């Protein structure tokens, strides 16, 4: 499968791509697309011509490679490692932006040098249509890293532990794991572990037989049984009483459980996803959480970044959430309000952002949310609108992108683009977008 120079025959590679049912493209080392199979053209580009264009231009609409725009570039990774590489990217498609798994395989010539790459693209099922509608959206590096972990673990049956502050969207992420998994057509059952008293916890989780205790007038199916074949999401797992932790451990280790009041051992075929905002490792040390259960739940931990670490995602989320809470009203957000939303630290994370916008909708009589509709007053002479726990929240934050005279900064700054992004307190991706918008190199 090589020409006279020892390189793989292009015609044979192109023919091979056409036999593959998933979208594939063939690229050279300089990012140029040499061929695209019919599945790629039909699924992603709506018959647009892509051959001869750069892969980053087609997928991202960038004018530089991904690694120069604050992204992870699988081609550069593969050049360094010499092996197959896999990453998650947010791509432009005819249906809008969509997360896609990218698997890049190097093709070598007779001398062993990499000359081409075969790139496979695989969208995350429902990643845009459902997750976007529910607010699980973002472009920041922290968010994309989290979604890459979701994409890697979802197809397996491994137990997942979601860790993060309250309001970061742990149930949304658990739902995304379920939708991308092979169990997507089966039940997704969420259990609020903090809302169940110890006396009822075992019955709710495992069910009970008639007469098992006072008030048990009929047999009850537990949530484990209700989730059969699907996913059981244990929210705030750190609040599970110690007496119940040992029974949950048995479920995880043996796949079996007993209804309260029954000697019969029942089989459970469920995937466990748990979540907590509490420091389980510290709780293990103090004896308030079982060590063996922690290890069983923590097979694949995923950290959910707080909203204050997600940069421009705040405004993306604000626009998406506003469309949901505005009840059909065509509301926009003024530049001043957007500036405040970008600067605020959000101790309550995405949940707090949603509440702020819902309140603003009720206060706004026009067609644009302004600073006076937000709970922290930005007008002079209105200190009564500033709650004590938020006072000074914006004063200590770095300058907003809109406030920076970027051309002036570029004239005086000496250093790399990465160093400049760090100096400004932005991500490299944010800096790249600002430079591109201003037509600057």
Quick structural gist:
The chain is α/β, with parallel strands linked by helices. The chain has helices at residues 10-18, 38-44, 55-60, 74-81, 131-134, 141-153, 170-180, 198-206, 223-226, 242-254, 280-286, 291-297, 313-325, 335-343, 349-363, 406-412, 417-424, 428-438; strands spanning 24-28, 33-36, 85-93, 96-108, 114-123, 160-163, 188-192, 207-208, 220-221, 231-235, 256-257, 266-267, 271-276, 300-303, 332-333, 368-369.
Helix-strand layout with pairing:
Elements: H1 10-18, E1 24-28, E2 33-36, H2 38-44, H3 55-60, H4 74-81, E3 85-93, E4 96-108, E5 114-123, H5 131-134, H6 141-153, E6 160-163, H7 170-180, E7 188-192, H8 198-206, E8 207-208, E9 220-221, H9 223-226, E10 231-235, H10 242-254, E11 256-257, E12 266-267, E13 271-276, H11 280-286, H12 291-297, E14 300-303, H13 313-325, E15 332-333, H14 335-343, H15 349-363, E16 368-369, H16 406-412, H17 417-424, H18 428-438
Parallel strand pairs: 6-13, 6-14, 7-10, 10-13, 15-16
Antiparallel strand pairs: 1-2, 1-5, 3-4, 4-5, 8-9, 11-12
Helix pairs in contact: 10-12, 13-15
Radius of gyration: 26 Å
Helices, by number, come to 18
What's the multimeric state?
A: single chain
The shape, in one word, is globular
Main beta-sheet strand count, sense and barrel state: 5 strands, antiparallel
> Quick check: average pLDDT?
83
Which range best describes the helical content: under 10%, 10-25%, 25-40%, 40-55%, 55-70% or over 70%? 25-40%
Low-confidence stretches: 127-133, 377-402
Task: Provide the spatial order of strands within the biggest beta sheet.
Answer: 2-1-5-4-3
Class derived from helix and strand content: alpha/beta
Please report the distance between the alpha carbons of the first and last residues. Answer: 42 Å
């Amino acid at each position: 499968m090589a020409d006279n120079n020892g390189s793989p025959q292009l015609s044979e590679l192109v023919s091979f791509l056409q036999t593959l049912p998933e979208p594939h493209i063939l690229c050279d080392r300089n990012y140029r697309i040499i061929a695209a199979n019919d599945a790629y053209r039909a699924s992603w580009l709506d018959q647009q011509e892509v051959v001869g264009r750069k892969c980053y231009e087609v997928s991202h609409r960038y004018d530089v490679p991904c690694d120069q725009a604050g992204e992870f570039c699988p081609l550069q990774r593969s050049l360094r490692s010499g092996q197959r590489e896999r990453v998650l990217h947010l791509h432009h498609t005819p249906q809008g932006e969509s997360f896609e798994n990218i698997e890049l395989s190097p093709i070598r010539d007779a001398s062993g040098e990499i000359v081409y790459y075969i790139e496979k693209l695989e969208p995350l099922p429902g990643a845009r249509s459902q997750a976007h509608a529910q607010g699980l959206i973002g472009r920041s590096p922290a968010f994309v890293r989290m979604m890459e972990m979701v994409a890697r673990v979802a197809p397996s049956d491994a137990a997942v532990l979601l860790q993060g502050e309250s309001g970061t969207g742990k149930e949304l992420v658990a739902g995304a794991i379920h939708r991308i998994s092979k169990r997507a057509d089966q039940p997704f059952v969420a259990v609020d572990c903090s809302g169940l008293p110890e006396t009822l916890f075992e019955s709710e989780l495992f069910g009970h037989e008639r007469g098992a205790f006072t008030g048990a007038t009929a047999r009850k199916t537990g949530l484990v049984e209700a989730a059969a074949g699907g996913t059981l999401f244990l929210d705030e797992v750190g609040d599970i009483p110690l007496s119940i932790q040992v029974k949950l451990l048995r479920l995880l280790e043996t796949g079996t459980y007993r209804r309260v009041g029954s000697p019969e051992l029942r089989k459970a075929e469920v995937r466990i996803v748990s979540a907590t905002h509490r420091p389980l490792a510290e709780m293990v040390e103090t004896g308030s959480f079982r060590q063996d259960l922690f290890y069983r739940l923590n097979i694949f931990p995923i950290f959910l970044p707080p909203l204050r670490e997600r940069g421009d995602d705040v405004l993306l989320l604000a626009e998406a959430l506003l469309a949901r809470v505005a009840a059909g009203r065509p509301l926009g957000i003024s530049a001043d309000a957007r500036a405040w939303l970008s600067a605020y630290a959000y101790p309550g994370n995405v949940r707090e952002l949603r509440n702020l916008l819902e309140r603003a909708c009720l206060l706004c009589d026009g067609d644009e949310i302004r600073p006076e509709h937000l709970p922290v007053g930005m007008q002079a002479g209105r200190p009564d609108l500033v709650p004590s726990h938020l006072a000074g929240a914006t004063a200590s934050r770095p300058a907003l992108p809109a406030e920076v005279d970027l051309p002036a900064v570029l004239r005086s700054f000496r250093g790399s683009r990465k160093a400049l992004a760090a100096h400004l307190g932005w991500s490299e991706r944010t800096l790249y977008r600002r430079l591109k918008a201003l037509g600057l190199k």
